[in-house]
Amino acid sequence: MEMKKAEDCETVEEVQAYLKVLDEDNRLIQTPEELERIENEILSYTNRLAALLLKKNFRPH
Asked: Would you give the distance in Å from CA 45 to the centre of its chain?
């Protein structure tokens, strides 16, 4: 699966799928640099997920 940048994700489901991939990648970490990269990616996707959920919850019905 080719990873999109977090800010390019348009749905909650899309962000959740990428977070699952990162969780699986997290198990293969071998260096501190890889750990930092994965942590930063997880943070960006988590922030995007929060933004999408807020947008979804505050949309006029």
From this structure: 2
Mean pLDDT within 17-44: 90
Q: Are residues 11 and 45 in contact, defined by beta-carbon separation less than 8 angstroms?
A: no
60 has pLDDT over 70? no
CA distance 7 to 30: 27
Alpha carbon distance 32, 51 (integer Å): 29
DSSP string, 12-56: HHHHHHHHHHHHHHHTT--SHHHHHHHHHHHHHHHHHHHHHHHHH
Name the residue among 51, 48, 54, 55 with its Cα closest to residue 18: 48
State the pTM of this model: 0.81
